[in-house]
From TrEMBL:
Residues 34-79 form the Transposase IS204/IS1001/IS1096/IS1165 zinc-finger domain. This is Transposase. The lineage of its organism: Bacteria, Bacillati, Bacillota, Negativicutes, Selenomonadales. InterPro entries: Transpos_ISL3 (IPR047951), Transposase_DDE (IPR002560), Transposase_HTH (IPR032877), Transposase_Znf (IPR029261). Residues 85-135 form the Transposase IS204/IS1001/IS1096/IS1165 helix-turn-helix domain. It comes from Propionispira arboris. Residues 146-385 form the Transposase IS204/IS1001/IS1096/IS1165 DDE domain. Signal peptide: none annotated. Transmembrane segments: none annotated. It holds the Pfam family DDE_Tnp_ISL3. It comes from the Bacteria.
Amino acid sequence: MLNIQFTTLFLDLEDLSIINVTENSLTVQLPRKLHICPSCGQQTQKVHDYRLQKIKHLPLLHKTYDLFLRKRRYVCPHCSKRFFEDNPFLLKYQRMTTLLKQFIISQFAQVKSASAIAKDTNVSVTTALRLFDHVDYPKPQLPEVLSIDEFKGNADGEEFQCLLVNPKDKRPLDILENRKTDDLCKYFASFPIEQRAHVKYVVMDLSSLFRSVIKSSFPNAKIIADKFHTCRLANWALESVRKEVQKEFSDYRRKYFKKSRFLLLKRHKNLKRDEDKEQLANMLAVSEKLSQAYRLKELFYEVMDSTDSVEYVKRFKQWQENVMRYDIKQFNKLMKTVIEWKNEIIAAISTGYSNGYIEGCNNRTKVLKRTCYGIQKFKRMRNRILYMAA
Ligand SMILES: [Zn+2]
């Protein structure tokens, strides 16, 4: 049984013959072949001696085993040079087979910590990481449409990293070390101007910092304010009102509102259960201010549902009237922001480009970070994220 398992393990190493099997070890050797003497260039098949070398190969399911290679040394009858046989699966001075190395690297495509990978493949964590460090991605080509977003990566002492994505094929392009204006400008400036001039749209959240970087780096790019981030601002405004309003509540009611806040944040049309709708109505009946804020949130989503700029302008005007009527400071602030970003929001509506995919990317990164207890080294994190997405 073990023998069959061992044999299948070496299917890819065709010439190898198994010469000894014990309960938990295996000895293999390569066939005897004509070799060229590295010293004088003459041919020889004369064996000088054998050495047993312990090597590492692919893991067997539920079984640890020792693998030995019976290495042959040839001797040249013309010049007496002694030399080891050629080995197609084990590079010179290596103890690990090429297949094992490839297998270990491929494990990094999964959401799995380096220590788990090391354990499963019977190597040290340092070795697993050293192998993965061979994976590296060069700077990408800039696409016509570019998405930029930040995420909390906590790598190398920087809390936030930036993610660049091509929203057309939803592929991560690059990860930048931080979100500092100077560093972002320097990064984009490293691309030739012809390439930067080729970028037509840049999708981003409503951050003035990103906007100034993009404006100075991409001469022909139109900025698109990501719809998801824009809508989220209305949720944040509503959340802020909820927290303010519930300060006057009893302990019990405050806890209840906090626990049920998703009913407020979800779009009303997405509440499917009657009891949820009923519960929401009861919550809104408690505070007029909360109820007005809720209405403004819902109406804002409708503004954002507009399918062209004419519709947007019309719906926004109606929304603005309501905001002014209710005069809630959180929504006054939102209104200001939305006016300031009018062109970018309309660009989002007319092009349909969004960073929805980036959020998915960020969630995957979060899972990865949890699994790996934080990925400290920036370069490794960058390669890991790009490798997982490839
Ligand atoms: Zn020779």
